[in-house]
Write a structure and sequence with these properties.
By secondary structure, the protein is mostly helical. It has helices spanning 2-22, 33-55, 64-72, 78-103. The chain is elongated. It starts with a helix and ends with a helix.
Length: 104
């Protein structure tokens, strides 16, 4: 869980910083970065929303005991976390490649 949260936070910070650059005075030179930011942002937002839906308990829980048991149980299997981490790593790598391409 810690690796997942750290990866999400790191990628969020990187995207915020790059997004700020893409809106700055040198934004016209960022040919590769702008389309990537748009597509990656949409895909990552959908993935983060999916993760949040899984982590947040449903509003229709019948008993407090069932609600507590659900909150204490990690809802992801190891393979799920690995897939999420791979997705995050792919976006981070794509972001790095686009930034490097724009610097050339």
């Amino acid at each position: 869980m810690n690796d997942l949260m750290n990866s999400i936070m790191a990628l969020q910070t990187a995207f915020q910083q790059v997004s700020h650059l893409a809106k700055g005075p040198g934004a016209t030179k960022l040919i590769a970065l702008k389309p990537l930011l748009e597509s990656s942002s949409l895909e990552l937002e959908n993935e983060f929303n999916r993760i949040l839906r899984i982590l947040q308990p449903g509003l229709r829980q019948k008993t407090k005991k069932k609600l507590l048991r659900q909150r204490l149980k990690w809802p992801f299997q190891k393979v799920d976390v690995e897939q999420i981490l791979q997705l995050l790593e792919r976006h981070k790598s794509d972001l790095t490649l686009a930034m490097n391409a724009d610097q050339m």
